[in-house]
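Weekly modeling sync, notes
Attendees: S.R. (lead), two postdocs, one rotation student

Agenda item 3: backlog of single-chain predictions. S.R. asked that every request posted to the team notebook include the full sequence so nobody has to chase files. The rotation student volunteered to paste the first one in as an example of the format we agreed on. Action items at the bottom.

Example entry:
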Amino acid sequence: MTDLIDLTISEALDLLDKRAVSAAELARAHLAEMEKARFLNAFITETPELALRQAEASDRRRAAGGATGPLDGIPIANKDLYCTAGVRTTAASKMLEHFIPPYESHVTQKLKDAGTIMLGKLNTDQFAMGGSTMTSHFGVTKNPWTDKTGGYTLVPGGSSGGSAAAVSAGLCMGATGTDTGGSIRQPASFCGVTGIKPTYGRCSRFGIVAFASSLDQAGTMARSVRDNALLLRTIAGHDDRDATSVDAPVPDYTTFLTGDIRGKKIGIPREYRPDGLNAEVGKAWDKGIGLLKDAGAEIIDISLPHTKYALPVYYIIACAEASSNLSRYDGVRFTGRVGGQTLDEMYCNTRTDGFGDEVIRRILLGTFVLSAGFYDAYYTRAQRVRRLIYNDFINAFKQVDALLVPAAPTPALSYEAMKALSPVDVYLGDVFTTPSSLAGVPALSLPVGVGADNLPIGLQVIGRHFDEGGVFQIADVLEKSAGFDRTPHRVKG
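Predicted structure, as returned to the notebook:
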């Protein structure tokens, strides 16, 4: 039988239903792999005792012949941005280093209700601000894919880098992530896994530590398109506690995996092929276009004319919202506190000590663009251009059913290469993901090949609002046609 840590979720569910494997066996296999792979630093908090209790309860439910959840017995892990009752939630920050929530996020509650086994909380960039996990207070996560010398020197992407690395390395079968400007899709590409950012409002944000409220969206990462369809079917749905949660039916996304996309129209936006596009990424994109065409799809060249404004618009809006959201961390309420002679001094000391450089940089930028003298010049103008970007997608989907574009401008970079980049150069890594975030449309990243250094390269399938089913349908065909079956070297510890 396939090694338990190499199973997909759908394969594991089949074995669990046949009683060929137990939930406890699955949990122990993944816990053992987590122990071997601690040097990857994918987890901030491990919960082995909780996982085994949940696994044993799952096995008892099956043995009794009672009702089981749709993901009963499946070991998963959660990005450490999701509040989990009784389990530390840090947002990878010093500010929340000792915070233990008294409540559960909507998404993680739905996963618990579905019978999943929680292995722990996964590393992320601090408050989800970054693209490498290098801003985490708890240290960087290493990409399980190795460099040319066999060393673990590559970034896993971010901010959901811990989630992507854990799924890729076989430490969990699936993971939650959050995506504000590409934080699921870019690390999925870097680590050779599949991840989806659903339509904004499809999943509740209740209980997720906020970064930018009009952009943050819960999503999932797993080893296959089908596994993500299973996970998203579970976590999606309306929640009265989130005013942006949309009350719309959630279909069984697995029913869209028909293997047939004949007649589908796939848009290829010319703005995503700038001068100097990385040759390996361009080659992978051309491969994906060819595979979809061979599968019977019609390829159509289109234009998204305001794409060039997406990055500056994104960073103005995201930083403005971060400045507002993070004002709650003042040392008075539920966070760490550093004293001072006055109230203002205590605020200053607490925030200086609790926030990392990147978080401070974004708060300062956000405060600046919201200030009285610059609000209209920056924030108001950015919101107007955001509407133009949104309209570009609306117009595009009058012509096509979905778009196919790169997920990241390069394969995974080394930590040394990332350190050498300026903050602005780092922000350019989101060039292919921010437009769809600003428009709120669903986008899925999946690996289609490897580059010259044997590192995975992903493409995005972007769909209409609330057409995650169509995205899954096209991505499933592309996944099977690409035949990507590479995995990182088995972690030895």
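Discussion: group reviewed the output briefly. The chain has 16 helices and eleven strands.
Action items: rotation student to repeat for the remaining queue; S.R. to check formatting next week.
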